[in-house]
Structure formats: C-alpha cells, structure tokens
Amino acid sequence: MGSQTVRHELVTKHAQNVSKVRITVIYCFRALCCKGPPPARPEYDLVCIGLTGSGKTSLLSKLCSESPDSVVSTTGFSIKAVPFQNAILNVKELGGADNIRKYWSRYYQGSQGVIFVLDSASSEDDLETARNELHSALQHPQLCTLPFLILANHQDKPAARSVQEQKLEDLSEDISHLFLRAKGLVI
Ligand SMILES: Nc1nc2c(ncn2[C@@H]2O[C@H](COP(=O)(O)OP(=O)(O)OP(=O)(O)O)[C@@H](O)[C@H]2O)c(=O)[nH]1
Ligand SMILES: [Mg+2]
C-alpha cells in the first residue's frame, strides 16, 4: 500500500469522525434546547373559605409543599397556584376572621369551584357559625351551581366530630358535594 493511499484513508476516517461528532453535538443541542415547553395544563379558579383557624392556609401550604411554620392568619385574601399533574388550581383564600367574612361575597366572582374548610373540633357555637356561613355560600348565586368541597379539618384532635356529627347534610337538598376528612395536615 502506497503512502498516498494510507494518507487518503486517514483523511477519510478523520472526516467521518468529525461528521459523527457534529451529528452528536447537533442531536444533544436539539434535545436540550429545542424540546419546546411541556403541554399547557388547564387552570381553574377556586375560592377557599371557612372560619378563622379552620386551616385554609395550612391546607394550601401543604398542597404547595411549603413549610407550615410560615402560616399566619390571613388578613384580606391570598392566592396560591396549586399544581397537580393534570391541572393547576388557582386558589383564592379569603380570611375567615369576623371582620373579613362580611366581604367574602365580593370576591366570589369568576370562581369555578369552592373549598369550604371546617374545624371539626371547634366549639358548638363556632360550628354553628360555620354552618351558617356554609349555608350562605351554598345559596349564593355566584357559588350555588359550582362544585363544592367541604373539608372536615382538625380530624387529628380528640374532640373532632365526624362528618355525621357536624350535621351538614341537611344544609342542602342537593348532596352532590364532596365531604373529605382531613387528618393531621400540618403535623
Ligand atoms: N391539629 C391541627 N391543627 C391545624 C390543622 N389545620 C390547621 N391547624 C392549625 O390551626 C391554626 C390556624 O391555621 P390556618 O391555616 O392559619 O387557618 P386559616 O383558616 O387560614 O385562618 P385565617 O387565615 O385566619 O382565616 C394553625 O396554627 C395551624 O397550624 C389540623 O388539621 N390539625
Ligand atoms: Mg389563612
């Protein structure tokens, strides 16, 4: 084999290697940079209500994987985007203190669903107040047709009532609402 043939083979091999490297670099670049954004998840606007201390902020913080240590009573309202695999819930929590509750209905517009949080271990008086607020919310023109989640929270406490003991079923003839018992959301 002449030296010219050997040189020709080496040049050809080098050219092949260079093009292989080029293809790999382009492939990696495409994989890393041209993948495009993940498909958009649908977003829904929810309103979250319940008396002060019922655990609304704690629930939403937990769902957003945030530390429960930073939870303070909500003055006014706060909005959190809660990510789920197939959807994002933009939840607007309305503070539950006496002086804030009278303004709740001003913030209902545009809601597509309702979360009502109850303190299942509260005093009978507070439970009665919560029942009345729940009753008003269920009848409100902007909420009455929406999906309702009623969350019986504080179930980890010895004084917690069961859903039946909270006598909520008679609040509405349409019992298509979803009741959930939440236990130890924050501890
Ligand atoms: N043991 C127990 N404590 C809870 C539970 N949920 C909330 N808490 C505690 O109750 C207190 C009040 O909780 P928040 O989440 O601030 O209540 P909130 O409904 O957002 O109150 P406002 O913002 O004032 O309307 C906090 O100290 C929480 O740690 C629960 O399921 N069990
Ligand atoms: Mg709060």
Description of the molecule:
This protein is of the alpha/beta class and 187 residues long. It folds into two domains: 1-36; 43-181, P-loop containing nucleotide triphosphate hydrolases (Rossmann fold). Helix content is 32%, strand content 20%. The chain has helices spanning 3-33, 56-63, 98-101, 124-139; strands at residues 43-49, 77-83, 88-94, 113-119, 148-153, 178-181. It has a six-stranded mixed β-sheet, with helices on both faces. Strand 4, helix 4 and strand 5 form a beta-alpha-beta unit. Bound molecules: guanosine-5'-triphosphate and magnesium ion. Guanosine-5'-triphosphate is lined by residues 50, 52-58, 68, 71, 73-74, 95-97, 117, 153-154, 156-157, 182, 185-187. Keywords: GTP-binding, Magnesium, Metal-binding, Nucleotide-binding. InterPro entries: ARL15 (IPR042292), P-loop_NTPase (IPR027417), Small_GTPase_ARF/SAR (IPR006689).
End-to-end separation in angstroms reads 81 Å
Ligands? guanosine-5'-triphosphate, magnesium ion
The shape, in one word, is rod-shaped
Strand content: 15-25%
- Number of E strands: 6
The helix content is 25-40%
The average pLDDT value, as a whole number, equals 83
**How many separate domains make up the residues?**
2
Query: Which class of secondary structure composition applies to the elements?
Result: alpha/beta
Total of DSSP H or I helical runs spanning 4+ residues: 4
Radius of gyration: 28 Å
**CATH topology (fold) name of the largest domain:** Rossmann fold
Please give the CATH architecture of the largest domain: 3-Layer(aba) Sandwich
| CATH top level assignment of the largest domain | Alpha Beta
- The CATH homologous superfamily of the largest domain is termed P-loop containing nucleotide triphosphate hydrolases
